Amino acid sequence: MGALRQHTRMSLDEFLAWEERQPTRHEFIHGRIVAMNGGTVAHNQIIANIDRKLAHHLRGTPCRVFRESLKLLADESIFYPDVFVTCARLNDQDRVATEPTVIVEVLSGSTTNRDRLVKSTAYRSLPSLAQYILVSQDVTAVESMRRDGTGWLHEVVTGRTGLLRIPTLDFETPLSVFYEDTDIPDLDRFDDEDASARQ
Question: Higher confidence at residue 36 or residue 15?
Answer without folding.
Answer: 15
